[in-house]
Structures are given as C-alpha cells and as structure tokens.
Design a protein that fits this description.
Number of strands: 0
Protein name: DUF2267 domain-containing protein
Strand content: under 5%
CATH superfamily: Uncharacterized conserved protein DUF2267
Radius of gyration: 15 Å
CATH topology: Globin-like
CATH architecture: Orthogonal Bundle
Pfam families: DUF2267
Organism: Ensifer adhaerens
Number of helices: 9
Oligomer: single chain
Shape: globular
Number of domains: 1
Structural class: mainly alpha
Order of helices and strands: HHHHHHHHH
Length: 142
C-alpha cells in the first residue's frame, strides 16, 4: 500500500503565507509583516462576521492553509451576524481590532483583497463569492 503524497499547498504553506503577507504589507504601505498580519486578521474577521457558517466554510475551502486557519481561529459562534455595510464602516471595524497595535490604513480591505487575489485562483474565488450573500463580492474587490 502506497501513502498519499502530502499536498503541495501544505508542504509550502509557510512560504505561501509569507508571500501573501509581503503583498499585503506592500499594498497597504505598512512597515512590517507583523502590522500586515493584524490587518489581515482584522479583515478576515470583519468578513466572517457577515457570513452564515455554511457560507464561511465555502469561503474557507478556497483559502490557502494558513489564511484559512486565521479565518476560522477564535471564532465566536454566538456572535451576531452583521450585514454588509458601507466600506467606511467595515474599515473602522477592521481598525478596531487591537487598536493599540493596529495601523491598518483606510484602504485595508482593498489591500488585503488585492493580496489575496494575487495569491489564490481568482476564478475560483469569484465563483465562491457569487454564491455568497450580496455584498461578499464587493467586499473582496481590490
């Protein structure tokens, strides 16, 4: 009996995540990947708050492993689902995560969307977003 080889997405997950963080950092004009990490985490949590669990799983399935882990980490399933609101209000929500350590710019959502689109299959992303509630596709517009 032969063993199934480890999928490449898991074998190089750290390298892929580092490339994604560098893209997010550069697009946002941040100084460090630590700053980019906080921004990415906040954007993912802001998006997640607007999805039913089934929709969140559809979205998570297309994310690379480390981004997927961040997306589902520390999820409060009792937290009320929020509507997709204007970009400014959702950006303030992004900026509210760990405010003493968060310097996410006003373009944070678009910056993370741009980095995500550079690092995953955009066609697959757009197919999944089309199945999600109204507002999901606009959220991930770079």
């Amino acid at each position: 009996m032969t063993a199934m080889p480890m999928p490449m997405e898991y074998r190089q997950a750290s390298l892929d995540f580092e490339r994604f963080l560098l893209d997010a950092r550069d697009l946002a004009g941040l100084q460090t990947t630590n700053q980019a990490y906080t921004m990415v985490q906040a954007v993912l949590q802001t998006f997640r708050r607007r999805l039913e669990i089934e929709d969140a799983i559809l979205f998570a399935d297309i994310l690379p492993p480390v981004i997927r882990a961040i997306f589902v980490a520390e999820w409060d399933l009792e937290e009320p689902r929020l509507p997709f609101s204007g970009r400014i209000a959702m950006t303030r929500e992004v900026q509210a995560l760990r405010p003493d350590h968060n310097i996410s710019p006003d373009g944070a959502i678009a910056d993370v969307a741009g980095a995500l689109r550079r690092n995953i299959d955009e066609a697959k992303l757009d197919r999944v977003l089309a199945r999600l509630p109204a507002g999901a596709a606009d959220f991930w517009r770079a």
